[in-house]
Amino acid sequence: MPYIAPLFVPGDRQERFAKAAATDADGVIIDLEDAVAPAAKATARSAMAAADLGGKPLIVRINGAATSWWDDDLKAVAQSAAVAVMVPKAESPAALDRVRRRCGDGRQIIALIETAAGLAASADLLRCPGVAGAAFGSLDFANDLGCDPDWEALAYARSQLVLTSRLCDRAAPIDGITADFSDGEAAGEDAARAKRLGFGGKLTIHPRQVPPVLLAFQPTAEDVAWAKRILDSAAGNGGVTSAAAEMIDQPIIDRARRILAQRRQS
């Protein structure tokens, strides 16, 4: 953490690993869970453990703690080059602690919040040792609540996860996937919405989604120009000032600095 546009790839599709690593995604999530049929779990696990992504960060989404694949997944991750473990249906601090102890302290844990119980427990989950941050499983979360998986229905949950991440001093959370990968435009639009809410990145499921998601989390040219104008106007002023009919005080200056810092990091 933080990851801006990590890309999912099914664990049993080993031929796609190198293609995923060759994209601009800042991490590859080899999925052992939803993308893999039960009969292919062992094959996916072996392929993940042997994966070579050429230096691209490897994240592994394991199967849930209640499944029969949990222990084998943890063993395979411990023997892999994974830098992070994504834990689905995260609800139990004890389960996250077991991931840390089995997989090693050097690996980050990403708590995937996909249920109402997970959101309710998110503060306890994020405070667990080894947990770098959270991701939002929006589709499963909507199913758990019985609501539509649209922005209006999930706005509270998204905002709550952003707030809890900040209160727990963890990285800004990663937003869930956009199921429409026809041209990447929908993912880019969703990413822009997520950024406005305070998310730090977005999960992707197809290479064509990666560029628009990365772009959405970069400051726009207008944002950069505004930030420079604010800082230029504030230079040498110790208190509140103004520029172009806009008040400039410390929160405005801090926002301008954050925008320019994001541009340098992108």
Topology:
Layout: E1 7-10, H1 17-21, E2 28-31, H2 41-49, E3 58-61, H3 70-78, E4 84-87, H4 93-103, E5 108-113, H5 116-120, H6 122-126, E6 131-136, H7 138-145, H8 151-167, E7 174-175, H9 185-197, E8 201-202, H10 210-216, H11 221-234, E9 241-243, E10 246-248, H12 250-265
Parallel strand pairs: 1-2, 2-3, 3-4, 4-5, 5-6, 7-8
Antiparallel strand pairs: 9-10
Helix pairs in contact: 2-3, 9-10, 11-12
Question: Can you walk through the features of this model?
Answer:
The mean pLDDT is 93. The strands form 3 sheets. Strands 1-2-3-4-5-6 form a 6-stranded parallel β-sheet. Strands 7-8 form a two-stranded parallel sheet. A two-stranded antiparallel sheet has the order 9-10. Strand 3, helix 3 (70-78) and strand 4 form a beta-alpha-beta unit. The protein is globular. The chain has 266 residues and is of the alpha/beta class. It folds into 2 domains: 7-216, Phosphoenolpyruvate-binding domains (TIM Barrel), CATH 3.20.20; 221-265, no CATH class. The chain has 12 helices and 10 strands.
